[in-house]
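Quick start: load a record and inspect it. Here is Tubulin polymerization promoting protein family member 2:
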Amino acid sequence: MASEAEKTFQRFAVFGDSSSSGTEMNNKNFAKLCKDCGIMDGKAVTSTDVDIVFSKVKAKNARTITFSQFQEAMKELGQKRFKGKNPDEALENIHKLMEGKDPATTGVTKATTVGGVDRLTDTSKYTGTHKERFDESGKGKGIAGREETTDNSGYVSGYKGAGTYDKKK
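Running the structure step on this input writes:
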């Protein structure tokens, strides 16, 4: 049975990395875990500390750390974060911070249509030449609305009253 800390580790390890099995974590997700769980507080523990500790515990040319390496890293960060506590106590406090945490998706961009878009895409509000490109229903007229089609009726270009002048009898 995996500990709470290990479960959290796995959730963060696979976050945004579909190929991850959850047994190893890359630096990006390690930093995210430290941030989301409040281990990195910007004072005692900064993102630089987190990067340094990550590089220290990982294998020389590895790009990821295992859970046991992660534990090492947490001991080290725990000492920074909970000054004056012994390593085990500090680690325990870190585990408390991690319990039941999921990678936060706040601030992750979601495709939401903001109110402004409707206003911009409402063809009935278009003016000038743009107005010519759509019919009343808002459907584009295609090429007819875009191309200057030559009107050979003999009337001046842009004259809207073609064919309304009374024919002389």
